[in-house]
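Lab manual, section 2.4: Encoding a predicted structure.

Procedure: take the sequence of the chain (320 residues), apply the prediction step described in section 2.3, and record the output as structure tokens. A sample record is shown.
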Amino acid sequence: MRQATSPQDATARSPARALPGDVDETLALLGAGNYVADRSLATALFLALKLARPLFLEGEAGVGKTEIAKVLADTLGRRLIRLQCYEGLDVASAAYEWNYSRQMIEIRLAEAAGGANRDALARDIYAESFLIKRPLLQALEADLAGPPVLLIDELDRTDEPFEAYLLELLADYQVTIPELGTVAAASPPIVVVTSNRTREIHDALKRRCFYYWVDYPSAEREMQILRVKAPRAGEALARQVVAFVQKLRGRDLFKLPGVAETIDWADALVQLDKVALDPQAIDDTLGVLLKYQDDIARIRGSEAAHLLGQVKAELAAGAR
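Recorded output:
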């Protein structure tokens, strides 16, 4: 059976700290984890934390949705439990399953001993000790450092029946196990749900969450991100990289580059000892920035040179 992503060990996490008291503290918390956020995102996150509601983050791939959960776990000193979604994900992989081999051994031992009470045996083999806990159930367990951060990543990859299964968890922070009963969290975990919007998520799930659309950043904010995430890139190179990527996002491409690609591209150019963009460097490294051959073919060569000319002219005009 395919198993969901197991919870990540938090051996290197920061010491546990209290939740932020206002939006400014939330901005500072994200900043402490090297996450550059605007105030509207910090406001949505603060309210989700303050009111103990799941936060549903939707947006294109590579804009930093998953990173928010990672930063929260690190800066708050909480355990991060990540459920990576995929098509066909089921309850056994995401929430729990029974340890059938141990149950069979228990049954055989009871039969060998003779005189086994069937009703008592049925109760015994469905005790919690026979339960294999997957990420959703693990997120409901108490933790000395505080409730964990549960990341349900790329929910749009799953099927609608699994989406429906999450409704109880997101509304009441509990999971009902037919053979055992209801398992509820003593303190609600911090829940972050992400979607790349490859399909629409049902309104019933969205209503249980605070919603925020994570958009591509402005040029100014993307520059701030590069200063934090790619500090070795010089100011001139970073400005050209950001301006070029911003231009690309205005083109009709199959997959627009996200912030993650901007960071990777800046790092790649630094490794090539580039202090400024040139047409050859762009053509040689487009595979870092764009992930589909049709997009690369459309931009490589004269189009890349044309965009670079626009970028340099605009930056020069702005410097005057």
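Check your result against the sample. The first helix runs from residue 23 to 32.
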